[in-house]
Amino acid sequence: MDSNVLLLLLVLMPIAALLYASVGHGGASAYLAVMATVGIPHSESRTIALILNCFVASSAFIQFGRMQPIPWKMLGVLLAASVPFAYIGGTIDVQDGVYRPMLGVVLVFAALRMFWRQPSNTEVVRTPPWWMLMALSAVIGLLSGILGIGGGVLLSPALILLSWSTAKQTAIISSLYIVVNSMAGLAGAWNAALVTDVSVLSVVGVTIPAGIVGAYIGARWYSPTILRRVLACVLLVASIKLFIS
Predict the structure, then answer these.
(1) Angle at Cα 146 formed by Cα 140 and Cα 149, nearest 5°?
(2) How does DSSP classify residue 69?
(3) How many Cα atoms are found within 13 Å in the side-chain-facing hemisphere of 5?
(4) For residue 62, is pLDDT > 70?
(5) d(CA 52, CA 55)
(6) Alpha-carbon distances, residue 30 vs 63, 136, 166, 220 (angstroms)
(7) The predicted structure's pLDDT at residue 74
């Protein structure tokens, strides 16, 4: 790997981990955006993103879970529907000409999600029909496995917009959802998505601690609104590059 590319990854990937973990996410969409911009093949970048997701989102789940009751029943329904489809998605190796536009759409969605004002934790919550919850989760799980994301960036706005969960509960749900789906996606993609560049290990090594710090900050006292919006701009630029390249 070129030294300039490695330096860029060492700077941007930890920043993405810190910001995403602060809202209960793993950061895969940002990792993929950065790696696509510097030309890392999507078969490798998907694996790297899923590995980082497992560690960063686990930290978020632990930190947010200490501050709020964990909605195990909803999590059980969501994961029962998503895990098989995330595994199936992980076995699908789409062509670059298809993968890049799909990822671009998700990055645009992720950027808009970052721009949205975070709702309070006191909004009225409705109990969702189990079949609607499972259908939503199955679709997100499949997309997660194909693209190499955990699905939190798609799940969390849906839960909040449908009034199925509070902001803090959504962070808890999304973080564990991301971990489990990332593991399922990795299992599906394991044989075809090995990382060949050992210098990537240094990127993983600095990104995981940044995610731990971000989860601690986000769960306890800091909401990095301005930084999230800066990250949203970065994601939009990356998505435009994916569409026109």
Answers:
(1) 65
(2) -
(3) 12
(4) yes
(5) 5
(6) 21, 23, 24, 23
(7) 93
d(CA 44, CA 63) in angstroms, rounded, equals 29
The token pair that represents 36 in the structure block: 């696509």
What is the token pair recorded at 215? 């989860």
Q: What pLDDT does residue 13 have? A: 93
Tell me the two tokens of residue 86: 């995330």
Cα separation values, 60 from 39, 182, 215, 239, Å: 29, 14, 5, 26
CA dist list (Å): 153 to 4, 52, 187, 193, 211:
29, 15, 21, 23, 16
Domain ranges of the chain: 3-244
Of 34, 26, 32, nearest to 52 (Cα)?
A: 26
Go through 66-92 and write b for each residue having 16 or more CB atoms within 10 A of its CB, e for each that does not: eebeebeebbebbbebbbbbbbbbbee
Contact by Cβ (8 Å): 150, 182: yes
